[in-house]
Amino acid sequence: MQIPKDQILKYLEQQGQGSTASRAQNELPDQVDTEQHGDLLANLGIDVGSIMNAGGGGLRGKLGL
After folding, report:
1. In which element (H, E) is residue 32 found?
2. Phi/psi of residue 59, each to 5°?
3. pLDDT reported for residue 49
């Protein structure tokens, strides 16, 4: 699944994970492919499943998925 980096950063900041958002800003590509970049996301401690299914639909709802 493709997720814009900006959406991941916004989610992390809303969750009070500013330090992770800062690292992600520097390390993630502009368009994140959850399969291709899975190891990078895991190294940053980003659980894509949690982000996609967070309250109110998480990114899934925001991205219309």
Report:
1. strand 31-33
2. -70, -30
3. 81
| Secondary structure class of 63 (helix, strand, coil) | coil
| Number of structural domains in the chain | 1
Crossing angle of the two packed helices 5-14 and 18-27, in degrees rounded to 10: 170
> Residue 56 above 60 pLDDT?
no
How many Å apart are CA 56 and CA 42, to the nearest integer? Answer: 23
3-state DSSP: the chain helix, strand, coil percent, rounded to 5?
60, 10, 30
How many CB atoms sit inside 10 A of residue 29's CB?
10
pLDDT tens profile 5-49: 998 998 899 889 999 999 999 999 999 999 999 999 999 988 888
| Structural domain range at position 37 | 2-62
- Whole-model pTM: value is 0.76
